[in-house]
Specification:
By secondary structure, chain A is α/β, with parallel strands linked by helices. Chain A contains 18 helices and 13 strands. In chain A, helix 15 links the parallel strand 7 and strand 8. Chain B is of the alpha/beta class. The chains are: A alpha/beta, B alpha/beta.
């Protein structure tokens, strides 16, 4: 028995060599290119594309990793349609924009097999390494750990589950990136020399502050906000995680699924359910559909795969038949058949202890925990800047 | 990290990439910006006794499909700025960038003029001079530029004048608009040149404006021939450079140019004998910033070949450039189509059938729906055409199958 996400195919498969060359040669190599500004990590996109065109794949990958250690997964999970690809000047010429994400994946996926993280990030020895504890094993902590390890510091990641990756491994739509591929990138990054302690839940920073020179918090957001609980009712991130990691998850008997919410998570989970073969999948949004916060291109993609969208409806109740969820009742008094109800109205931020303790001079934070919930690429960029601040603060300290 | 610094006639260059004498080296400001971005050296736009006046328009291009500027041409002349201004800027550049190489390009007439300018640029501190015997339009109509490059005796004479007063290396720039490049090259050696640089641009007409019935680029109602350059001319440059590199009677180094755009081009030019490389068209198209991937790409290549220094690359392929009569006629290759990669475009079939030796066959669609062609191996002459037209990488390979183990050549059989 295999996890359900394996049934969903890759929506942007890896370029073959000639296809990559053809697309790379189409890039105009703009001066002061808008795609560089559009990338939150500021990858020199025209340069790496030109390097692909000149058959310097390793050079291209190095250029990408110089700005973004998670360049491989970002290539696959970033909403490029609203970032780099959306800013491509070809959009103004009525031509297809350059498929920057696909080219970025081509370079990094190929180069990971021949270059090590130690080489790429120029790991150096440090005569006075600092010891840093990083809480949470998602993109923010991974980025920070890699950049700290590159400077010869000792990074230890504490992860409460059994595997690393956070939402980048457990929360990404299967047609973008599957769990196994996320782990491949993580394993490659760990090769630089990072300690990992899994299945450890940190509830207070105090013991860590005694043992480590600094603490980095990259724990992301909390569990799904829930309207209701009970059989047939799931939190969105929990359901997505199960699709990706639970081989016992059974959805074949579900004919009608309803997703409450209007953001990208709601669209993603609805889209996945439709791709898994559920006949009727509907997203229910309480306001006008034009006000949904999810990306337009994702909504259109989901609609093309059969997802229905209804605005101006709120959930007021559910009905069960022999203990199984069978219908939901909406604010316009309509009764909709539903055997699977998904709550995608946001994640909570429940760890008040860590929030309070994070206001400490030796405690740093980045990613969803501090920004409220954005993209992987934002977590990477914030972690990069935080590490710079950390390194600067250490270099200002004069050893006595 | 491999070392890209190189020694050219005693001039130390931080890397082998120089800007050629052309619009990108028109002003001191441009050269300084280029040095800031990482170029190793620059050959300044050709100095003359008095500045010329250029026409408008000046440039034209040949595009290939959607690939822009496969070939480029110019009818621009040498420097249109006052000599005093240029000399001041040359001196200024060297003061600010002592470690980068600055070469003054010169085009004068009488012996007095040549020797006087030589003394002046030497005093100004440039690292070397390049004698422009190659401008193929405008100046040659007045007996300068390529008119000199096409007259070996005159080339030698002028080079000797300059050599009489030189304290810095003299590079003679050769024009390709000759029937045998070795003639002017020998003349340069005889005249005392320390090095040669080639190729200058090739005489060309880029096309015709069919609405106005005037060749392009159009100046009012007429045009003229210009100098062709860009990626299209690389094979011509490589040939001439290799000819000079393998000639034992030309022991001086070569500064190679002609369509260099990528690090592979650079490596190929060096493998066939260039010690430094000059670039123009690629910079005019994409800017000085291309130096980044040129140097990074070349470093990566050297590292992959375990070469510590770029100077190890110079001339590596020269000994393999032989005369046709010395090629091994017992070498034989046969085309092999990888059926798992073939996409059924059947271009190999039609190019071989119409354009080469009719060694590839396809199925009759009424009998067999497979679109994969096959090679008649005992008839295949191993010409490479099918491999060249095939759009799928590594689908057609040329597999070695010698006629006999021993070597046999036209000259030795």
């Amino acid at each position: 028995m295999s996890v359900l996400e394996k049934q969903i195919s890759d929506h942007k498969p890896l370029y073959g060599q000639q296809a990559a060359l053809d697309e790379a040669n189409r890039c105009l190599y703009c001066y002061d290119a808008p795609c560089i500004t559009a990338c939150p990590t500021g990858i020199d996109v025209p340069l790496f594309i030109r390097q692909i065109a000149h058959r310097d794949i390793k050079g291209a990958a190095q250029t990408i990793w110089n700005s973004n250690p998670l360049g491989y997964s970002c290539a696959r999970v970033c909403p490029v349609e609203v970032l780099c690809v959306g800013s491509c000047v070809y959009n103004h010429a009525g031509e297809e924009p350059i498929q920057i994400g696909k080219l970025q994946r081509f370079a990094t996926e190929n180069a990971m097999t021949t270059l090590s993280a130690k080489q790429v990030f120029h790991k150096r020895e440090n005569t006075h390494p600092k010891r840093v504890a990083l809480i949470g094993g998602g993109p923010a902590s991974l980025t920070a750990a890699v950049l700290l390890a590159a400077q010869g510091h000792k990074a230890t990641i504490f992860e409460k589950t059994s595997s690393l990756g956070g939402l980048n491994a457990l929360g990404i739509a299967p047609y973008k990136l599957q769990f196994d591929d996320a782990q491949k990138e993580i394993d490659w990054l760990l090769g630089i020399g990072i300690n990992v302690k899994t299945n450890i839940n940190i509830s207070s920073l105090k013991p860590l502050l005694d043992e480590y020179d600094a603490v980095f918090i990259g724990i992301g957001l909390g569990p799904d906000t829930r309207l209701l609980r009970g059989q047939g009712i799931w939190g969105a991130t929990h359901l997505i995680e199960s699709i990706k990691t639970d081989p016992t998850l059974e959805l074949r008997r579900i004919k009608h699924a309803c997703v409450i919410g209007g953001g990208n998570t709601a669209i993603d989970v609805a889209h996945e359910l439709a791709l898994l073969g559920l006949k009727h999948v509907t997203v229910l949004y309480r306001k006008d559909l034009s006000l949904m916060s999810g990306y337009e291109h994702e909504r259109l993609n989901a609609q093309q795969d059969g997802v229905q969208f209804r605005g101006h409806c709120e959930l007021v109740g559910v009905r069960r038949t022999q203990g199984q969820l069978s219908e939901i009742i909406l604010s316009d008094d309509s009764v909709v058949p539903c055997q699977l109800l998904v709550s995608a109205i946001g994640q909570s931020h429940d760890d008040d202890t860590l929030k309070r303790e994070s206001e400490h001079p030796r405690v740093w934070k980045a990613g969803d925990f501090s920004n409220g919930g954005k993209e992987v690429v934002n977590a990477v960029q914030e972690a990069k800047l935080i590490v710079q601040h950390m390194l600067e603060s250490w270099s200002n300290t004069c050893p006595i | 990290m491999p070392n890209l610094s190189i020694d050219f006639c005693g001039i130390k260059s931080p890397n082998p990439f120089w800007l050629a004498s052309a619009p990108p080296t028109n002003t001191g400001d441009q050269v300084k910006r280029a040095f800031d971005e990482g170029w190793g050296g620059a050959v300044f736009k050709t100095l003359a006794a008095s500045p010329i006046t250029n026409v408008s328009s000046r440039f034209a291009a040949v595009n290939l499909g959607s690939q822009r500027i496969m070939g480029f041409n110019n009818i621009e002349l040498i420097s249109d700025r006052p000599l005093e201004l240029n000399l001041r800027e040359l001196s200024d550049i060297k003061k600010q960038f002592p470690k980068n190489v600055l070469i003054a390009s010169l085009m004068f007439e009488s012996k007095e003029q040549w020797q006087d300018i030589m003394r002046r640029v030497q005093d100004g501190g440039v690292d070397g001079v390049e004698l422009n015997f190659g401008c193929p339009h405008g100046m040659c109509e007045r007996g300068m530029g390529s008119a000199v490059g096409q007259e070996p005796a005159l080339l030698s004479k002028i080079t000797r004048w300059v050599r009489e007063v030189s304290t810095i290396p003299i590079i003679v720039k050769l024009t390709p608009n000759v029937s045998d490049i070795l003639e002017p090259a020998h003349a340069a050696v005889a005249g005392g040149a320390h090095a040669v640089s080639l190729i200058n641009t090739i005489k060309s007409i880029m096309g015709v404006d069919l609405e106005r019935m005037v060749p392009i680029p159009v100046v009012s109602d007429a045009s003229t021939n210009g100098g062709y350059c860009g990626p299209a001319v690389k094979p011509i440059a490589l040939h001439m450079i290799a000819q000079i590199a393998r000639d034992p009677q030309i022991p001086i180094p070569i500064s190679g140019m002609g369509g260099i755009s990528t690090w592979q081009d650079a490596a190929e030019f060096m493998a066939l004998g260039s010690t430094t490389l000059q670039v123009c068209t690629a910079v005019m198209k994409d800017g000085f910033r291309i130096i980044r991937e040129l140097t990074q790409g070349l470093e990566g290549f050297l590292a992959s070949k375990n070469m510590d220094s770029v100077s190890q690359l110079v001339g590596q392929a020269v000994s393999a450039y032989k005369d046709w009569g010395d090629l091994d006629m017992n070498h034989h290759v046969i085309a092999r189509i990888d059926e798992s990669k073939c996409i059924g475009c059947q271009l190999c079939y039609i190019s071989c059938y119409d354009g080469s030796h009719q060694c590839i066959d396809i199925h009759d669609p009424k009998i067999n729906a497979s679109r994969i062609p096959w090679v008649k191996e005992d008839e295949c002459v191993g010409c490479n055409l099918c491999a060249l037209v095939c759009p799928v990488p590594d689908c057609i390979s040329m597999v070695e199958q010698r006629h006999a183990p021993e070597r046999k050549s036209w000259n030795n059989s």
